[in-house]
Amino acid sequence: MAEQIFISFSVILLAVVFLSAGVAKIRSVDTLEGVVQNFRVLPARLARPFALVLPPAEIAIAAALAVPATRAYGAAAATALLLIFTVAIAINLARGRREIDCGCFSSTLKQTLNGWLVVRNAFLAVCSTALAATAWTEVAPSWADWLLGALSVGFVICIYLTATTLTSNTSTVAQRRAIAAGNF
User: Fold this and answer.
1) Residues 97-152 pLDDT 10s
2) Ramachandran assignment for 40, one of left (phi > 0), alpha (psi -120 to 50 degrees), beta (any other)
3) Which helix or strand (DSSP H or E) is residue 102 part of?
4) Nearest to 75 by CA among 128, 122, 125, 22
5) 46, 33 Cβ separation under 8 angstroms
6) Can you say how many angstroms the Cα of residue 32 is from the centroid of all Cα atoms in its chain?
7) Which of 4, 58, 93, 117 lies at a CB distance of 3.0 to 4.6 Å from 22, suitable for a disulfide?
8) What residue ranges in the chain does DSSP mark as E strands?
């Protein structure tokens, strides 16, 4: 039963993350191109093609995760993208470039680069890697497993959004204090 709940949790979580990220990015490809350029890990001439390909790829991954026959491929692709994103974030953190937007959900949720994004992506990559490994088994979640998985995803998303909001507010307060003190 634990395996079925894990499968349903991972499928729903990853599908929600990739679908919402892809849809948000499609709405603002020009902004996404700027975000890709800001990362400075690709040659400038590849920023536009990457910005055009990434949103449909994320949506395709979400769709592949939803279909049992393509779930392993979707999970493997999710792992690959998550690792690419994590490496790009880690490179910029190592460069001391924390002020740029991660571009994760386009303009929906502005986030500057930080270590928590690496942790978040690592968690998602573990889920997608494990899902890819279990996708070939004959284990099929029941409706109760899907329900418990969906409730768990809702809980995780609420915690994530709360933590992101608190982090953002703390950063804003610190910036306002620095401005007020003349330390800007």
Assistant:
1) 988 888 887 555 567 888 888 999 999 999 999 999 887 676 777 788 878 888 88
2) left
3) none
4) 128
5) no
6) 14
7) 58
8) none
Dihedral angle computed from the Cα positions of residues 111, 32, 155 and 70, in that order, rounded to the nearest 10 degrees:
-150
* CA nearest neighbour of 23 among 115, 111, 104: 104
Specify the residue for token string 């942790």.
Answer: 119
Residue type, 165: T
- Contact of 72 with 135, CB cutoff 8 Å: yes
Q: pLDDT tens digits for 140-161?
A: 777 888 788 888 888 888 887 7
**Which residues are paired to 112 by β-bridges?**
101
| 160-175: burial string, b at 16+ Cβ within 10 Å, e else | eeeebeeeeeeeeeee
Q: Which residues pair with 101 in a beta bridge?
A: 112
**Tokens 């004959």 — which residue?**
138
Which tokens hold the place of 140? 């099929």
Residues 111, 122: Cα–Cα separation, whole Å: 17
Is residue 168 within 8 A of residue 31, CB to CB? The reply is no
Helix axes 2-26, 71-94, angle to 10 degrees: 60
